[in-house]
Amino acid sequence: MSTFESLNLSPEILADIRRAGFEAPTPIQAQAIPPALTGGDVIGCAQTGTGKTAAFAIPIIERLAGSAGLRALVLAPTRELALQIQECFDGLGAGRRVTAATVIGGEAMGPQVEALRRRPAVLVATPGRLLDHLERGNVSLGTIRILVLDEADRMLDMGFAPQIERILKHVPLDRQTLCFSATMPPEMERLVRGHLVRPVRVQVGPASRPVDKVSQVLYPLHRDEKTPLLLSLLRGGRGKVLVFTRTKHRADRLARAVGDAGHRVARLHADRSQSERRRALDGFRAGQYRVLVATDIAARGIDVIDISHVINYDLPATPEDYIHRIGRTARAEASGLASSFAAPEEGDQLRAIERHLGQPLRRERARAR
Ligand code: AMP
Q1: Same domain for 34 and 176?
Q2: What's the gap in Å between 197 CA and the centre of ligand 1?
Q3: Do residue 268 and residue 289 come from a single domain?
Q4: Ligand 1 centre and the CA of 332: distance in Å?
Q5: Residue 188's pLDDT band (boundaries 50, 70, 90)?
Q6: Residue of minimum CA distance from atom 6 in ligand 1
Q7: What is the full DSSP assignment across 4-62?
Q8: pTM (predicted TM-score)
Q9: Are residues 166 and 293 in the same domain?
Q10: What is the CATH number of the domain that holds 327?
C-alpha cells in the first residue's frame, strides 16, 4: 500500500492531510497525484466517494505554493459540489497558504466579487456564474496555469458544453489540465482530445468502486405501496437515510408524508434557495434531520459521511445516476445499504440498471409492517 509520505509531498501539506484524518492515499490519489505533480495532463476515471477531490487538490496546492495571483480554475457541475471542493482546498491548503474562492449561481454577486478581489490562488466555479463574472469583467483567466474539469461527464449531461468551450477561450493554452469523470462516453473522449495534451489515464479498479461496498436490494411493488414501505423501512432502521424521488413535486409531497409520520426530515431540490439547500444539508450532516429527500440534480456531490441507507423511492433515469445515488452511502470505509423501489412502469430503467451492473439486483418482497 502506498503512503502519502512516499508521494514526495511537503511537510506542510502532509500535516494538513493528517489533520483531515486521511491515513493513506485512496487508489485514485495514489495514481493521479504523481503525474499531476509533474505538471502533466491527467484523466481520472473515478466516481464521487473515491477521494477524487483531494486527488486534484493536493497536486494543485503543492504546485501553487508560493505563487501569487489566480493560478487554478476548477469547473464543477453543481453548487454543492463546488462548495465541497472549496472545503477540501480550505482544509488541505492551509499550511501551504494556497487560498480558494468559489463563484456559484443562486448567490449574490457582491460577496463573490469581494472574494475575487482578495486574489485567491484557486477559483472554484460552476460554468454559468463564471461566465457572468467574465462578461462583467470581474475576473480574468489569463494567468491560469492549471484547469480542472470535475465530474466532466455530468457537466456535459447538464448541457454545459457550450459554456465550457466559451470559458476555455479565456484560459491560456499552455496550462495543465486535469479532468475527472465517472464515465467516459464518446462526448467525453471528444472533449479530452480537444483540450488535453498526451494525458495520463488513471482509473480506479473495480475492487475499490464504492458501489461494491453497498449491499443493494430491489423491492418490486405497486406505486401505491411505495410510501407505506418507506415508512416501514424508516421505522425498522436506524441511522441517516437519503431518499431519492424523480421530481421536485414528489420530493415535497413525500417529505410531508415522512414528516407527518413523525420523522425529522429535510428536502433538497433545485427549486429551493441556496440558503435553504445549505440549511437542509447542514442539518442532515449534523443529525438534526434523520431523513433527507432529494432529487438527482440537487444531490450531486452530497458528501455526508454517515449515510447508512439510500432509498430509491423512484428509480433514476439512467444507470449512471443509480451509481451516483448509491455512492452516497458507504462513504470512506463504511459499508451501506441501498434499497430501490420499482413499480411495473419503471421496468425500462430497471433493465438498464441491471444491464449496467452486469447482474440482477437481489429481490425482496415489499411488506410494509
Ligand atoms: P470525494 O471522492 O472527493 O468526494 O471524497 C470522498 C470522501 O472521502 C470525502 O469525504 C473525503 O474527505 C474523503 N477522503 C478523501 N481522501 C481520503 C483518504 N485518503 N482517506 C480517507 N478519506 C478520504
Answers
A1: yes
A2: 27
A3: yes
A4: 6
A5: confident
A6: 49
A7: SGGG---HHHHHHHHHTT--S--HHHHHHHHHHHTT--EEEE--TTSSHHHHHHHHHHH
A8: 0.63
A9: no
A10: 3.40.50.300
Domain count of the fold of the chain: 2
Residue from 22, 329, 331 whose mutation best tests the ligand 1 pocket (most atoms within 8 A of CB):
22
Same domain for 219 and 192, yes or no, is no
In a domain, 368, yes or no: no
Q: Which atom of ligand 1 is nearest to the CA of 4?
A: 19
Do both 288 and 160 map to the same domain? no
> Which residue, chain included where needed, has cell 503512503?
3
Mean per-residue pLDDT, 72-84: 95
Q: Are residues 71 and 107 in the same domain?
A: yes
Tell me, yes or no, whether 195 and 61 share the same domain: yes
Query: Is residue 144 domain-resident?
Result: yes
The answer to whether residue 163 sits within a structural domain is yes
For residue range 118-138, what is the model confidence (pLDDT) as tens digits? 999 999 999 999 999 999 999
Provide the domain limits for residue 359.
Answer: 214-363
Domain boundary among 204, 228, 255: 204
What was the pLDDT predicted at 151?
94
If you measure from the C-alpha of residue 331 to the centroid of ligand 1, how many angstroms do you get, rounded to a whole number?
8
Instruction: Classify 111 as helix, strand or coil.
Output: helix
Closest C-alpha to 281, from 102, 139, 109, 78: 78
Residues 6+ apart with CB under 8 A from 320: 153, 157, 182, 183, 356
Instruction: Give the binding-site residues of ligand 1, using a 6 Å CB cut-off.
Output: 22, 25-26, 29, 48-54, 303, 305, 331-332
In ligand 1, the atom with minimum distance to the C-alpha of 88 is: 12
Q: Rounded to the nearest whole angstrom, what is the distance from the C-alpha of residue 51 to the centroid of ligand 1?
A: 4
Which of 17, 53, 329 most suits a substitution to test ligand 1, by most atoms within 8 Å of the C-beta? 53
Task: Give 50 Cα–ligand 1 centroid separation in angstroms.
Answer: 6
Q: How far is the CA of 360 from the centre of ligand 1 (A)?
A: 29
* AA identity, residue 108: A
* DSSP-assigned states of every residue in 62-86: HHHTT--S--EEEE-SSHHHHHHHH
